[in-house]
Please model this.
Amino acid sequence: MIPTSWTKIYRDDDDELLGFLVPDSGDDTMCVPVTVFGSSLSAPVARDTAAALLHSLGLEYLLGNWELVAPDNTANVTVRIIEASPDRVVVQHVDFGDPERYGTHYTLETPTEERLRRVR
Model:
């Protein structure tokens, strides 16, 4: 579950939730911008910069490939986001090199933290 201490950032034109600002534990002027499901989008930056990053990305960060980190760190897989909310994120395995699991859906509780990483 997403902590209530995280600051919600909404899109101006339709109030869609873009993500959250997570206070940096070492410096109260710094925040980490995170997705609606709690995956970080950058290192800690100034609060205004973090909010601006979420506004500039919009929900485009949901597109493209992500890496699902295996709990035992043995076999990370390439996935795409199917559904995302502050409660959960559903991803689909899209690695053609792994036909046994291709198309498999995984549901993760939020925040996903280090389990889901953007592929850049």
Remarks:
- The chain has two domains: 7-59, 62-118.
- The longest helix spans residues 47-57.
